[in-house]
Amino acid sequence: MNTTFSCVGCGKCCTDHHVPLTLDEARMWADDGGQVIVLVEAFLPNGLGLPAAQREHAERRSAVVRSGTTEARVAITFAAYNTGRCRNLDDENLCRIYERRPLVCRIYPMEINPHIPLNIAAKECPPESWETGPQLILGGELVDRELAQLIERSRQADREDIQVKERICASLGIHTTALKGDGFTAYLPDMTAFAATLDQLRSQPLAQQASEWQFHLSGDDIASQVLASGARVVTEVPVNYAFISLRAA
After folding, report:
1. Rounded to whole angstroms, how far apart are CA atoms 223 and 235?
2. Beta 176-179 vs 36-43: how paired, if at all?
3. Which Pfam families match (predicted)?
4. How far apart are CA 123 and CA 12, in angstroms?
């Protein structure tokens, strides 16, 4: 596959997309008055909810936690909460924080997850974006070395930040996850508390004791499998989070 790409400034990638953030970027977003959304998914030691080929990548960006009588590995994404146009997009579709924009914005349209190939049909960029511009992919390989380095920086931040992210969640009372592949749990924390907790936990040694988490599932069939593994399943109606199902209707 050969692919060229040139941004035409349509602003679609800056509209209705929650942009994943590193810890530094999440703190900056809070300082700028933005809202962070916390998205959580997890998988179990028996591999439920995770294709075998993706296990190594998933383990590297997840934290080991307790759930009932078993362990789980929880992956946590802090993202810029964008409903509608990004708060940093001006009337001419130009980014007001371009020089300090998040890594994921710099990497677009490429994917961070190595198991998700670039799919032009899934992008909202207009056709002319792919008709001219520098070579992006040649023979199926990414040819932009600077872009490749940014992708690796983002993956490294995922790995390095996860323990602090998990402790932030524990401190903020975030302890319900979805099963990877079944959905996400989504939280909108108070940003004053979020920023203060982030600052506190980054400046002190992390606790070694694993936190206790529970699963919110899309249906009884999946819930029975998770319960059989020994994990804890919540049945109450969500109070401080929303469940985003990935299950086909």
Report:
1. 10
2. parallel
3. CxxCxxCC
4. 9
> φ, ψ for residue 27 (rounded to 5)?
-65, -40
* Burial of 106 (C-beta count, 10 Å sphere; 0-12/13-18/19+): middle
pLDDT at 186: 98
Alpha carbon 16 to chain centroid distance?
A: 15
Domain with 233, as residue range(s), is 3-245
User: Quick one: tokens of 168?
Assistant: 């932030």
pLDDT for 214-241, tens place per residue? 999 999 999 999 999 999 999 899 999 9
β-bridge pairing 214-216 and 176-179: parallel
In eight-state DSSP terms, residue 115 is: T
Residue 166 and residue 224: Cα distance in Å, rounded?
Answer: 26
151-166 pLDDT per residue, tens: 999 999 999 999 999 9
Tokens read off for 181: 């592949």
Q: How many CA atoms lie within 13 A of 33 on its CB side?
A: 3
Round to the nearest angstrom and report the end-to-end CA distance of the chain. Answer: 33
Query: How many structural domains are present in the chain?
Result: 1
